[in-house]
What does this fold into?
Amino acid sequence: MSITNTTTTDHKANIINRLTSKTGLRGRIDAKCCECIYDSTATGTWRNQVLNCTSTGCPLYAVRPKSSYGDCGGLDTE
It folds into this structure.
């Protein structure tokens, strides 16, 4: 593993550790979504990348982290 990959992996692991330290399910859901989709070399924060997730078959899709500004993230509101 190169230094860049180690740094990227450490950064992602730090985010996941921070999220799982939250009480309740929210932190664990956030951490799982981050683990699944976040790529620190791609554009956007982990939350932006999760917000743009298109894995509608995922059991966590409906409860994935969304924007704190009321954006429904493209979900139908029916």
